[in-house]
TrEMBL record, chain A:
It is found in: Cell membrane. This is Oligogalacturonide ABC transporter membrane protein. InterPro entries: ABC_transporter_permease, MetI-like, MetI-like_sf. The keyword Membrane applies. It holds the Pfam family BPD_transp_1. The chain crosses the membrane at residues 12-35, 69-90, 102-123, 129-146, 158-175, 195-214, 226-245, 257-277. GO terms for cellular component: plasma membrane. It comes from Alkaliphilus peptidifermentans DSM 18978. Residues 65-276 form the ABC transmembrane type-1 domain. Keywords: Cell membrane, Membrane, Transmembrane, Transmembrane helix, Transport.
UniProtKB/TrEMBL annotation, chain B:
Pfam families: ABC_tran, OB_MalK. GO terms for cellular component: ATP-binding cassette (ABC) transporter complex, substrate-binding subunit-containing; maltose transport complex. NCBIfam families: PRK11650.1. Keywords: ATP-binding, Cell inner membrane, Cell membrane, Membrane, Nucleotide-binding, Sugar transport, Transport. Residues 4-240 form the ABC transporter domain. GO terms for molecular function: ABC-type maltose transporter activity; ATP binding; ATP hydrolysis activity. InterPro entries: AAA+_ATPase, ABC_transporter-like_ATP-bd, ABC_transporter-like_CS, ABC_transpr_MalK-like, ABC_transpr_MalK/UgpC-like, Mo/tungstate-bd_C_term_dom, NA-bd_OB-fold, OB_MalK-like. SMART domains: AAA. SUPFAM superfamilies: MOP-like, P-loop containing nucleoside triphosphate hydrolases. This is Multiple sugar transport system ATP-binding protein.
Amino acid sequence: MKLKKYEGVIYILPWLVGLMIFTAFPFIASFLLSFTNYNLMSAPSFVGLDNYRTMFENELFKKSITTTFIYVFVTVPLKLSFALFIAYILNFKIKGVNFFRTAYYLPSILGGSVAIAVLWRFLFSDSGLINLIIGFFGISSISWLGNPRYAIFTISLLRVWQFGSPMVIFLAALKNIPESLYEAARIDGASKVSIFFRITLPLITPIVFFNFIMQLVQAFQEFNGPYIITGGGPLYSTYLFPLYIYDNAFKYFRMGYGSALSWFLFIIIMIFTLITFKSEKYWVHYDGGDE
Amino acid sequence: MAEVVLKRIEKEYPNGFKAVHGIDLEVKDGEFMVFVGPSGCSKSTTLRMIAGLEDITGGEIWIGDRCVNEVPPKDRGIAMVFQNYALYPHMTAYNNMAFGLKFQKTPKDEIDKRVRDAAEKLEITDLLDRKPKEMSGGQRQRVAVGRAIVRKPEVFLFDEPLSNLDAKLRVSMRVRISQLHQQLKEEGQPATMIYVTHDQVEAMTMGDRICVLKFGEIMQVDTPLNLYNKPANKFVAGFIGAPAMNIVEAELISEKDKAWLKIGEFTFLLPEEKASKVKNYVGKKVWFGIRPENIKSFETNPNEENNYATGEVSVVEQMGNEEFVYFYMAGNQFISRLNPEKVKQISLRGSYKFWFDLSKCHLFDFESEENISL
């Protein structure tokens, strides 16, 4: 009988242990470490808010955070619009639509992987496939990864290309809108464009909201792509903030400073998430669905 | 003001399924026409073709003096009320009603006037600021009707608008829609209304005329009373009326210079007036149809000699003002509709003697199922 009481706890124990070791502990530890100087060799020494103070004086920090903001605020809206656009098209009743849905979803299964990043590097290299194709049309080769102006574009493109998961969620939301609303709107005389902006879009705003927050959080944490493809270069043009954290923590073993940077990123993400939540009441409609 | 004319319209789906088989129909200007039929009879499809929501694969649709085959829904001068209301969930009742007018470039004050007039007519003025979620089913449906009214359409199309409502509300909405039709007529803006339902009570009570459909074909178009009293075929006879007409197999025989109907071991004398119409069917099998109210208790007609039959009563449903008596006779189940004040209590599961009023019966050809006794 006594066992019965704790039976449930036993079931969730594996997860609980994992959470403690891999999430809760690093979370708390990094917070504490962010107030210390720690190089893995000697014991951490308390330095107060020094880490937080010095980061704002660092030029690379400023460069990195600016690059990250540009990256986030370009890729997130682009990726979401693209995902919605494709979902909208895949919602039509056309022949072979299931094939297209799968085809368009595939990149996002592969997208996060290191292999794709490597492939991306290959595609956009100076003698890569992309240059080969544009060369075919008589355009001279572009240094996609070597030119600071294009490198950030190449990295951003990789993210936008992985629009599959928000697309699938958008598609589910679009399918939820009853056909009769579109029919009523057609009788009311709304054009395709007005139907999209006045009926479809308002009704899926809860999903736009969800996808926006998810994408925002993920974009701020992007690491794989730039790390593998450009290594942050050239001239730090793709040096996203997580790369800066990584370099400090694992290249220069400035664990205290790295922890402080992580917490700074956490706060930034938190602020933008909160702003999004605050703005919810002005543009998100929770009236649909229920029917 | 417009009449709606369907000329041999057809609907064939890409997979080869033919839903509508060349329907010809004329709905007069200002008429209330009801499409009725069992599910799958393509009544909604036909309505949606008139609305322009479904393309037609053959024939022509005329609204007023235009062939509208190629005209988009918004320009057909129609308004439609949907079964699931189809209100825009993120808009208030007011905006739902005003939505279409905005696209017609109607001036703001005119929109406001029309919406408020319609709201008043439907008693939903106090709901105008609410969103659909904050309204009951009946209120939503009234807003949906309001959205149709403000467009001032020439033709109203109703696609089973009441089937999502509970029974009581359905009756009051039914009356309201009939009133609306009447009211528009009195205001000098008579509107043609086409109303789809599978509920034959709605059809009977609302329609000026009823079009009975089966598998994409018209079975009969007539006034409610004519459908009831003079059904053109076995299908209409069985579909219109509740409880349904009793229809059983019978044989027409001639004996002693008179025509008789033989059902199992029972024979019934066919009145002269009916007999003369079915002379050619003597010796043949026919369908015999008789409405429940024309099967009476033996007590009510003591002077008649013929057409009595004893049935085994299985169920008696007491409705208060009438009684539905289910009984078996010659292996067939029949329903009789009796007036409880005029008959003694019928005991459940016993024999009882009924009198069949054959002057009101219908006979249908066994093959074609056409009514041969009209």
